[in-house]
Amino acid sequence: MNKTVLIGAGLAALAAFTLAHAQERATPVPAPKFDQPAVKGRQVAVLAGGCFWGVSAVFEHVKGVQAVTSGYAGGAANTATYDQVTTETTGHAEAVKIVYDPTQVSYGKLLQIYFSVAHNPTELNRQGPDSGTSYRSAIFVQNAVQREVAAKYIAQLGRAHTFSAPIVTKLEQGNFYPAESYHQHFLDRNPNHPYIVINDAPKVAALKTMYRDVYR
Predict the structure, then answer these.
(1) Which of the listed CATH numbers 3.30.1060.10, 2.40.40.20, 1.20.1440.230, 1.10.287.1080 matches domain 3-210?
(2) How far apart are CA 165 and CA 153, in angstroms?
């Protein structure tokens, strides 16, 4: 058997293992008791939770989400490039901009998915194999209502001791800047990339298992 076949077989086995254990790596969380009222027109959420490849992949599979863009938030426009952000000196976080229809999916539901399958909100300045402030857990609130919903939800999960460690997610403000084109829809274009197979495909599998009502 040649090396290419062996590598392919190894990736297939790894994919099967990680997908089989996807739900174990997710944390079921209750829905928020307080949510943003449904309004007409498209709304925007900006969430940071580690490498944007996996976070974007999760929300691309949520009903009511109309567009997902990977990018950077929290720093200045002139430092919003991958090469600069990875120096951990820009103040940016890898983030995703989610454009959604609030009549189909609420802001609270997006946060429920964010906390349960998109990332681990108890890891400070890291996610999985990635470390640094650019991989921090942060919600970039777009208005006062989003801030209230997010703050009350974090408090709700904390009181319920939903996680075995404290939630470190911060509420922040800052402009969002799209990332380079090769970062967009990365999982769809690179499903066999080892990082995707190990870290991100399980998140999408967990979404499908845990949120069948909004999975697409």
Answers:
(1) 3.30.1060.10
(2) 16
How far is it, in rounded angstroms, from Cα 56 to Cα 185? 7
Active site residues: 51
Token representation of residue 16: 């099967």
Whole-Å CA distances, 30 to 124, 149, 152: 22, 14, 13
- Asked whether 192 and 14 are in contact (CB, 8 A), the reply is no
Cβ-contact 135, 84 below 8 angstroms: no
Distance in angstroms (rounded) separating the CA atoms of residues 183 and 186: 5
Q: Residue ranges of the alpha helices (H) in the chain?
A: 3-20, 52-59, 82-85, 107-113, 144-159, 186-189, 194-195, 201-210
Each residue's pLDDT tens digit, 34-93? 999 888 899 999 999 999 999 999 999 999 999 999 999 999 999 999 999 999 999 999
Q: Determine how β-strand 130-131 pairs with β-strand 126-127.
A: antiparallel
Contact (CB, 8 A) for 34 and 149: yes
Is 108:84 a contact under the CB 8 Å cutoff?
no
Judge whether 135 and 93 are in contact, CB under 8 Å: yes
Amino acid identity for residue 8 in this structure: G
For residue 102, the one-letter residue type is P
Asked whether 52 and 183 are in contact (CB, 8 A), the reply is yes
Can you give the pTM of this predicted structure?
0.89
Residue pair 109/206 in contact (Cβ under 8 Å)? The answer is no
